[in-house]
UniProtKB/TrEMBL annotation, chain A:
GO terms, molecular function: ATP binding; ATP hydrolysis activity
PANTHER family per record: ABC-TYPE DIPEPTIDE/OLIGOPEPTIDE TRANSPORT SYSTEM, ATPASE COMPONENT, ABC-TYPE DIPEPTIDE_OLIGOPEPTIDE TRANSPORT SYSTEM, ATPASE COMPONENT
This protein's name: ABC transporter ATP-binding protein
InterPro entries assigned to the protein according to its UniProt record, in alphabetical order: AAA+_ATPase, ABC_transporter-like_ATP-bd, ABC_transporter-like_CS, Oligopep_ABC_C, P-loop_NTPase
Highest taxon of source: Bacteria
Domain ABC transporter: 2-249
Family matches, as CDD domains: ABC_NikE_OppD_transporters (cd03257)
Gene3D superfamilies: P-loop containing nucleotide triphosphate hydrolases (3.40.50.300)
Sorted UniProt keywords: ATP-binding, Nucleotide-binding, Transport
């Protein structure tokens, strides 16, 4: 369905584009039909940038993105519009996704004008109401209201209903529930999972491990624009291999397990990060060579890839690297 | 920090280059033959030979016969040699000398008026934001002051203090009976003439900066570092001191940007008090169609403003640590 | 309370806005119908006795040459409003154009436009105007508006660039792109309406700025050659000794009018700013 | 008793009238207790936390007494509170990232702040340096400007400053939400260490993320729509919550290990009530599956078990029968 092939994004920063900032570095992964893949990374990992490149809101500096085998960079005019008929996005801040001076349901009117001019108003009204009820909203309560009169949860469901109206086949959900309260968050998540039944494939972008585990089948873990580990969700969560993933698993506060006491915070100041492993400056088990060459993504187990020198040999199920007891606390 | 300075220098160089180019371009692209226009209006002498002689003299000076780019180079060459042509209004003194006599008066009037106006205006603006009663009293007056055209306030003050009460002279830089010497009487007389133009410029500047600071400090008093100081029980005086120090920074760059307007204000104030600065000179040059003097005044004004801008940027560098370390302050 | 009526609720109660618009309206009416009441043309030598103080016949007295000050005043007012409208309008339009393009396009285009804006900002615009006006023998009011408009736009461009930049990164612009809207329609339907309130504020300031610049230009003698204006009145007053002869009725009204109009505009601006951005409402 | 709060009521003045953000809250903290204060957005947890130290407009004091170490503190008197602020009660703000004056060296700011509160910088300097080591910050940070520090470093710097005078009560307002996971864990553990080393006697940690509280808090107070719902030791809140809202809230939290395919979690239908004119009686009534006629009357916040307080008629009756 959607394939990224060594996609990179380089930003020009500083006066007159002096310095180059590598936001995304040669990222490749696939999302098959009807599959939910979660893209996990903390702020600054480049996960939203990847989402925006897939939605053609940003152009990739290097590499290609294929949708059903076609390179999306080539789409222009009608082809791009057709692409948007099948691929849509929902964003993080519900209140920023709506133009404050128009009513919230204007987003449906725009879709009607742009994509389905030939459908009559009455027919379109019915479709809107059907879509709204399928996302658990009562049309009477939510139609012709201003965005500030609706809750975050309702606004996000509006956007999902909009995607349903286009009966898209691929949805980029960029942190869509991180602004919602715990109680409404789950319902929106369940809604997304139900959409899978319609054959919809979803790229679920988040920083929250438990949400990713709850909803997706495959996970891709990003650190500073590089994929450090990817594969089947159970494998990654039960036997995390890459030191960064392991640190994530240990540091995330859970309701069933207390934190181990030791703080494995390491900070090596690295002049220019272009060469070597991206996690070198904070990795408790880094070696000299880690600062020199960037380890490739290697499949160490069935659908379980990791980019770390410790798993270079590609041996069958490698004993997970034990990090416990590494109490090296230096400057953070 | 170095990059901040270079960027500034580049912009100022470009600006000066553009200004000089405009200055060179205008006479050459105006309708009709500039020298013919000039001579007919100046009507120096009736007989043809004198006019022809003047025409040849100026034709050579303008270098109209040379190809355009050569004229342009000559213009720059002359500029660097300080030869701005001969003033027809004060024939035969070179323009540079005329200007040299006028500049000290400008500096003597402008610098104190601007700096004092800026400083007291900001101090008072911060003070006014302290209580509602003061604010309701100060704000309207400041707004009226900034709305007042420079020359009108000058006229009113000249009329009231100069004529009605008659305690101040309203024309010239010193009484005609005295010769410029370093004697106390002369200096006193100089100040006596200087006071009214200075006061009118000062008052308008004062109003403008008071408003600017009042609005800025209200924002700064609600900034997060102010709220944190309040949370830690810091006395009002410390909170206000910090808010003022932060609010003054945009006022510094504001001063740099507003210099163009302030200089214009000084010009007209000089005309009202026939104070022999560049402004007064300019009026005479315009009324007598002395193009070289006009262009000379233009260059001096632009140069003055650019130098002042650069000085202010240096001051900003010293005052705002953010530009010295880390982020490049690009506000100007 | 719906958002729209809330804004209306505060508009009617904002003292600063009401007083400001009241004063502007007064001078506008005076400028429109005033000239019909004048007995003489502005430059016509109406009174043989030269300077006369205000009287029932000459409501605002006469000048040194016996010209009717009232006729000069109302016609000057008309010129002032024209300059404010056209000069300020042009400045806002050019500023909007450059501000929108720089803000929306970003990247190199933004860098170039921004550098250009900064350059024009630093150059003392009055000095440039002096040179241009000095060389042009015949100067019409429209030409003055053109000059003022073409040199007043940097302030607008900077403000609108910042606003567009902040709006452009908002997600509803991305959503508009995802809905297949063309860039031009996005600026027109999504970004511009959001800035309407801001554009009004910017225009009001430009209107006032144009009037002040015009008065300064006229005062130095570079104003329009074929019409009377408040700045010109003041210049004549100063040149022909209104001060020593105490002819206050000649130089007080023009300056007072300009101050009142520009002051009223600032007051409207503050009032509108308070309505649109409640933080400034009270200390 | 380190902190005693009785019937604390604080409203928010808005253009459309007073929002009854916090109503008759009463609870106590034992010495050394770290209390987590949790609840969804708009439940009043920030209002409660801030009213103890920074009760400034638009917040409006209505009623209530607050005692710290047995001494009543005048939270309604903004000026009068200055003597208590920083010394007795201190705050780590939510906006810690830009809480420091951008144009002052950090050391200079601390000195000016301390001297404005009558404390000599050189007396405190050795202790300040020791605490910088504790939170893994180099001493040179005192000569640097805030802009030169990373987000995590700024957070820890503000923690050190706020607790420098060993206040009896330290309120931490959402200090972990803007940090990456590793720094979040380090900062949370440092809070506990501040209590263990008795830099502070009590801590109130305000957050919407209950799993962080499970890691570091001794007890958790859950709030809903401006009133206290339940307060209990952390373990009992997580494993045996009594208030229906707490139960639904805990069950709606997806834990690593729970898959959609296996167990479909349930959210709480409906939305919290607007507090401009909140409903009478129990405010969770409309969304509560166990609501019955008695809920029309406001349930008292009573101790049904040692240190386990809850405001729900159902629990009240179970307790009355058992008692």
């Amino acid at each position: 369905m959607l394939r990224l092939d060594k996609v990179s994004k380089i930003y020009r920063v500083g006066a007159f584009g002096g310095r180059a900032l590598l936001a995304v570095n040669k990222v490749s992964f696939e999302v098959h039909k009807g599959q939910v893949v979660s893209l996990i990374g903390e702020s600054g990992s480049g996960k939203s940038t990847i989402g925006k490149m897939i939605l053609r809101l940003l152009n990739a500096s290097e590499g290609k993105i294929f949708y059903n085998g076609e390179d999306i960079a080539g789409f222009e005019g009608e082809a791009l519009k057709n692409y948007y008929r099948q691929v849509q996005g929902v964003f993080q801040d519900p209140f920023s996704s709506y133009n404050p001076i128009f009513k919230a349901d204007r987003i449906f009117k725009v879709v009607h004008e742009e994509f389905f001019p030939q459908v009559s108003d009455a027919e379109w009204g019915e479709r809107v109401e059907k879509a709204l009820s399928s996302v658990g909203l009562n049309p009477a309560h939510v139609l012709n209201k201003y965005p500030h009169q609706l809750s975050g949860g309702q606004l996000q469901r509006f956007l999902i209903a909009r995607a349903l109206l286009l009966n898209i086949s691929f949805l980029v959900a960029d942190e869509i529930i991180s602004m919602l309260d715990a109680s409404t968050r789950i319902d929106v998540l369940n809604l997304l999972a139900d959409l899978k039944a319609y054959g919809l494939s979803i790229l679920f972008i988040t920083h929250d491990l438990s949400l990713a585990y709850y909803i997706s089948e495959r996970a891709v873990i990003l650190y500073k624009g590089n994929i450090v580990e990817q594969g089947a969700v159970e494998k990654i969560f039960n036997t995390p291999l890459h030191p960064y993933t392991r640190m994530l698993m240990e540091s995330v506060p859970r309701l069933d397990r207390k934190w181990e006491k030791e703080i494995t915070l390491v900070e090596r100041d690295v002049e220019n990060l272009r060469r070597g492993c991206p996690y070198y400056h904070r990795c408790p088990v880094a070696e000299k060579r880690c600062a020199v060459d960037q380890p490739p993504l290697v499949e160490v187990d069935e659908d379980h890839w990791v980019a770390c020198v410790h798993y270079e040999s590609g041996a069958d199920l490698v004993k997970p690297l034990s990090l416990a007891g590494q109490d090296t606390r230096t400057v953070v | 920090m170095r990059r901040y300075l270079i960027r500034k220098m580049v912009i100022y160089a470009l600006t000066f280059f553009l200004a000089v180019t405009i200055d060179w371009l205008i006479p050459r692209f105006m309708p009709g033959d500039p020298i013919r226009n000039m001579l007919t209006r100046v009507s120096v002498a009736s007989n043809a030979t004198a006019i022809q002689m003047m025409y040849d003299y100026y034709a050579r000076l303008f270098g109209l016969d040379l190809p355009l780019w050569q004229q342009y180079l000559n213009f720059w060459k002359a500029l660097f040699q300080g030869d701005l042509g001969i003033s027809t209004y004060l024939f035969p003194t070179p323009v540079v000398d005329v200007l040299k006599r006028a500049v000290p008066y400008d500096v003597f009037l402008l610098v104190p008026a601007v700096l004092l106006g800026w400083y007291t205006g900001n101090k008072f603006g911060a003070f006014a934001a302290r209580s509602k009663r003061l604010d309701n009293f100060v704000l309207p007056i400041s707004y009226i002051l900034t709305a007042t055209p420079y020359m009108w306030l000058g006229i009113l003050m000249a009329w009231f203090f100069g004529i009605v009460i008659g305690i101040f002279p309203i024309a010239g830089a010193y009484s005609f009976s005295l010769r410029p010497t370093w004697s106390v009487t002369f200096l006193l007389d100089l100040l006596h003439h200087w006071f009214l133009p200075f006061a009118s410029l000062f008052i308008i500047e004062f109003g403008g900066w008071a408003i600017g600071m009042r609005n800025m400090i209200i924002y700064e008093l609600e900034a997060e570092y102010s709220r944190y100081l309040n949370a830690l029980g810091a006395p009002k005086s410390l909170v206000r001191k910090y808010a003022f120090d932060n609010a003054i920074l945009p006022q510094i760059t504001g001063l740099a940007l507003k210099l163009g307007v302030i200089v214009a204000g000084a010009l007209v104030t000089e005309v009202v008090f026939s104070y022999p600065g560049i402004g007064y000179l300019l009026l005479a040059a315009i009324q007598n169609q002395d193009y070289f003097l006009i262009q000379g005044c233009f260059l001096f004004i632009v140069l003055g403003v650019l130098i002042a801008n650069f000085v202010i940027d240096l001051v900003y560098l010293v005052v705002d640590p953010r530009t010295r370390r880390g982020m490049v302050g690009e506000s100007a | 309370m719906k958002k729209r009526s809330e804004v209306l609720y505060f508009t009617l109660r904002n003292k600063k806005l009401l007083i400001g618009s009241g004063i502007i309206l007064f001078f506008l009416i005076l400028a429109l119908i005033g000239p019909t009441f004048t007995k003489y043309k502005p430059l016509e030598y109406a009174s043989p006795r030269g300077a006369e103080p205000p009287s029932t016949h000459f409501w605002m007295g006469t000048t040194f040459f016996g010209q009717d000050v009232f006729s000069q005043f109302v016609n000057g007012l008309r010129a002032t409003f024209v300059v404010g409208l056209l000069g300020g309008g042009l400045g806002t339009l050019v500023g909007m154009l450059i501000g929108f393009t720089a803000g929306y396009r970003g990247g190199i285009v933004d860098e170039i436009l921004n550098a250009f804006t900064n350059i024009v900002l630093v150059i003392p615009t009055l000095a440039v105007l002096l040179i241009i006006a000095a060389y042009l023998q015949v100067r019409s009011l429209l030409m003055e508006c053109l000059f003022i408009g073409l040199t007043a736009w940097p302030w607008v461009a900077r403000a609108i660039r910042a606003q567009t930049f902040s709006l452009r990164t908002r997600e509803f612009v991305d959503l508009a792109k995802l809905s297949g809207m063309k860039p031009l329609r996005i600026i027109r339907d999504e970004i511009a309406p959001n800035m309407m309130s801001y554009l009004v504020l910017v225009f009001i300031l430009q209107f006032g700025g144009a009037i002040l610049t015009a008065a300064t230009l006229d005062f130095i003698g570079l104003g329009p050659t074929n019409t009377i204006s408040l700045g010109l009145m003041m210049q004549y007053a100063v040149l022909w000794g209104a001060l020593p002869f105490g002819m206050w009725w000649w130089f007080v009204p023009p300056g007072l009018a300009i101050t009142a109009i520009v002051g009223a505009l600032y007051s409207m601006n503050v009032g509108l700013d308070e309505i649109f951005n409640p933080k400034l409402r009270e200390i | 008793m380190a902190l005693k709060v009785e019937n604390l009521t604080v409203y928010y003045q808005t253009l459309r009238g007073d929002v009854r953000a916090l109503e008759h809250a009463s609870f106590q903290l034992a010495d050394g207790e770290i209390m987590g204060l949790a609840g969804e957005s708009g439940c009043g947890k920030t209002t409660l936390g801030h009213s103890l130290i920074v009760l400034f407009p638009p917040m409006k004091y209505i009623s209530g007494r607050v005692e710290v170490d047995g001494e009543e503190i005048p939270i309604w008197d903004a000026e009068g509170m200055n003597t208590h602020r920083f010394r007795k009660i201190s705050l780590i703000p939510q906006y810690a990232m830009n809480a420091m004056n951008p144009i002052r060296k950090i050391g200079v700011m601390i000195r000016e702040l301390l001297e404005s509160r009558g404390v000599h910088y050189k007396d405190i300097l050795p202790e300040l340096k020791r605490r910088l080591d504790l939170v893994a910050l180099p001493h040179e940070v005192l000569k640097m400007y805030p802009i030169e520090l990373s987000g995590g470093m700024k957070q820890r710097m503000v923690m050190v400053i706020s607790s420098l005078l060993n206040p009896s009560l330290l309120i931490a307002d959402e200090i972990t939400s803007a940090l990456d996971v590793a720094t979040q864990k380090a900062v949370a553990e440092m809070l506990v260490e501040f209590r263990d080393r008795e830099f502070v006697k009590n801590l109130i940690v305000i957050t919407h993320d209950i799993s962080i509280l499970y890691q570091i808090a001794d007890s958790i107070l859950i709030m809903y729509a401006g009133v206290l719902a339940e307060k209990a030791p952390t373990r009992s809140i997580i494993e045996s919550p009594r208030h229906p809202y707490t139960r639904l809230l805990i069950s709606a939290l997806p834990e690593v290990g729970v898959r959609f395919a296996e167990k479909r979690l349930q959210g709480i239908p409906g939305n919290p009530p607007l507090l401009l004119n909140p409903p009478t009686g129990c405010r969770f009534r409309e969304r509560c599956p166990l609501a019955y006629e008695r809920c029309l009357e406001e349930p008292p916040f009573i101790e049904v078990e040692r240190d386990h307080f809850v405001a729900c008629w159902k629990e009240y009756e179970n307790h009355a029968q058992a008692g």
